[in-house]
């Protein structure tokens, strides 16, 4: 019964159905493209946050190493001071000048050590202050980006859910519309759509040209297309041509 109904459909109606189907499928293509680009933005932010985390961790390690070094030098100075006290005491009990001089040299050496440690500690503290400044900046940036990421991710999840529902609805519509076409047309449509780069199987005439490959269409052919008495395909790309209501005279 359905078959008879199909036979009764005029070519003009068939062309209209074809073009409606094309619009549905083009919308599906558009949704997929939009959705395909969104995760990239989120991925970029994820990479940036991860990169900042690595940098922050490294800087924190460096600060820790510097702090350990300073604390080691502080301990070394305590030892040096204790040694100096000990040598000074020993100097009170020396038997000769040579022993006294030798202890003086030891004291001098320890004092130099203390000075060196103090100098190095001061340098270390300056380095820590510098690093902490950079670290604070990185932390601030990281938190800012992480916040951004959270928002974008939520947005993406929402859009994905939304567009998926929309896409499913359109796919059902597309399948129904495709089934309504006769086999010859539905096969041609499916074949054209899969072979065309932009997924366009049915195109409108656009400024006297094929809307798919943009080649000029001879005037007589354009009149035939407008008449919608038969299915006309583009001589260059093979796409099915339908008239442009805006260009009809
Ligand atoms: Zn063409």
Question: How are the elements arranged and paired?
Answer:
Elements (H helix, E strand, L loop, with lengths): L1 H7 L2 H81 L5 H84 L2 H13 L6 E5 L2 E2 L8 H9 L4 E2 L6 E3 L7
Parallel strand pairs: 1-4
Antiparallel strand pairs: 1-2, 3-4
The site of zinc ion (ZN) has 8 residues, from loops.
Give a structural overview:
With 249 residues, this protein is mostly helical. The chain folds into two domains: 32-165, Helix Hairpins; 187-242, no CATH class. Helices cover 78% and strands 5% of the residues. The chain has a four-stranded mixed β-sheet with strand order 2-1-4-3. A hairpin with a 6-residue loop joins strand 3 (232-233) and strand 4. Helix 2 (11-91) runs antiparallel to helix 3 (97-180). Bound molecules: zinc ion.
The number of helical runs is 5
In CATH, the architecture of the largest domain is Orthogonal Bundle
**Strand portion:** under 5%
Estimated radius of gyration:
41 Å
3D shape: rod-shaped
CATH structural fold name of the largest domain:
Helix Hairpins
Summed over residues and divided by their number, the pLDDT gives a mean of 93
Which structural category do the helix and sheet elements fall into? mainly alpha
**Strand order, sheet with most strands:** 2-1-4-3
CATH class of the largest domain: Mainly Alpha
- Beta strands, count: 4
Q: Report the bound ligands by name, code or SMILES.
A: zinc ion
| Total separate domains | 2
> How far is it from the N-terminal to the C-terminal residue, by CA?
38 Å
| Main beta sheet | 4 strands, mixed
Give the H and E element order: HHHHEEHEE
Binned, the helix content reads over 70%
Show unreliable segments.
Answer: 1-6
